[in-house]
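Lab meeting notes turned into a lecture example. A postdoc, R.K., suggested we walk through two folding results consecutively so the class can see how the record format repeats. The first protein's sequence and structure tokens come next.
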Amino acid sequence: MTIETTIENEMEAIWVVADQINGAINPVTFQLLGQARKLADDPARKVACIIFGDEIGGLTTSLVGAGADIVYKAESSDLKLYQQNIYKDTIVALAKEKQPDMIFLGSTSVGRELAPLVAAALNTGLSAHCIDLCLDEEGILEQKIPAYGGLMTIICPSKRPQMATCAQGVFATPEMDEKRQGITIDVPICNSEFQKIQTLEIVQESLEGLSIETASSVVAGGAGAGDTKGWDLIKEFSDTLGAALGCTRPAVDEGWAELDTMIGQSGKMVSPELYIGVGLSGEQQHMVGIMEAKLMIAINNDEKSPVFEQVDYGVVGDCKEFLPVLINKIKES
């Protein structure tokens, strides 16, 4: 791959703000670059990516390979850790100069904080947790989110840039094209002498159990667990099956499960070979997170539950009665 250092007649359509920690780029960045490349369509319209960090020169090649035509590299020892104000001020200053049509960020801990700050500073709109991004006949970005049992389309017809965040797994990861050519441009960081908020340390929690984002089988529990004993039974079922354990919002609110295991619009997107939903009703906010699952099964004691209309197979029954039998059968096999 050839990385040039100059460019002529650039016409930047879409920006993606890269999400990287300790030299590792979050997969959502590549997924957004792939979708941005599809939306840009016309080769004359450029896809750009802006990345922050310290000693990150080796990361630009993969960003080009995923679809970026231009990589803006904001590199400084001050950026070894995420710094909210520096990121925001640098993006805003560069956007005012280059006038991108769209800016996409991952719906990560950094992206969820940074996106509204940038949007407010640029006096534009922002749609969060989008599950699809496409263009209408006039080239306006249609930002789709789950709402009212279906999908709602949000547009930003007059303000620019059009901004959206998407979670990992919403779009497919593009194949790396090592023959793609792009350019990398060093950009100065906007670093005021006084930063109101500084990141001093990043502590990464150790993952317990399988990752719901990469597991081939996922069990998700909901409010139907009833209590901690019911939840422990769902957990035992997932362990017996060798599956990752996810959840819906009620399970988090009750304290049975951690927020980072929540599946859905404001959680994570999963695409397992097998998904089993236990004691959940099938609300759209959760179901959008399993749209790419290959085989879906639901266990619910209400035969009229909406979840049965959205899965391949359904079991009508009390999970507290059904799961012990199923667990024993699995152990016997």
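The second example is placed directly after the first for contrast:
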Amino acid sequence: MTQYLDFEKPLAEIEGKAEELRALARTNEEMDVTDEAEALDAKASDLLVELYKTLTPWRKCQVARHPNRPHCRDYIDALFTEYTPLAGDRNFADDHAVMGGLARLDGQPVMVIGHEKGSDTQSRLTHNFGMARPEGYRKAVRLMDMADRFGLPVVSLVDTPGAYPGKGAEERGQSEAIARSTEKCLQLKAPLVSVVIGEGGSGGAVAFATANRVAMLEHSIYSVISPEGCASILWKDAEKMREAAEALRLTAQDLKKLGVIDRIIAEPMGGAHRDRDAAMASVGKTITSMLSELGALSGPELVADRRRKFLEMGRQGLAA
């Protein structure tokens, strides 16, 4: 069942009416509603294009958080074969907000790591809504160490509101774990590519996305803080999240101009959740392309490429 966002209410009404007509026709075989239903479909299609033609930053935040968007597990199932999950940080516990393991992408062995939010109430609780604890980042470091040892490319899928800010996480060294994960990304002598598939929130995202190549889905977001958190700090009013979203420049389009990311992956009209298979296929092609760009580089060259990328970050936007 389609879940509509606030700004999609007019679309929900039209598509709802079309479905009602078809439901009536199914109960009365003599009723022919084909023309009426098709007219409503065309109207809905035009409205969908109009709504998504010029999304505001806040609306992009809503789309990025849509519960039906494909999550890390969906991408792994769709794009990778022979996936073998690896668990635990060998220190404290296994964090289900972070998943990863060995897999093949188009036959090429890789290490895939990502945030998993969950798709229903129970799985969201299990995965802590994609908010990783220190053990999650330490697991990621362990997997990157393994990839480095065997020369395996690393693919990271970013989708988190941010690292978990709970008391236990802070007691176990949350900031240190994030810093170690970011450091490991910078030190890898294997190719590292990252895709922001939904939310890229704060250091919790940077810890996976300090990569040679970073791509974002068209309606995903990537920011130092959530709009609500920014509004609460700057204006003492979380309801000013729309203004904060504008100021943060968190959209893929803004970040491409600033040189923070390298590619924008087009989404199906209406967002990745409206055609999950097409969205995941586009992400797969982009990952393959980015890895191909890095294939000829040696270990030291990959480290230098990554370092240069982050030292130059923002200069492109400032020059413009």
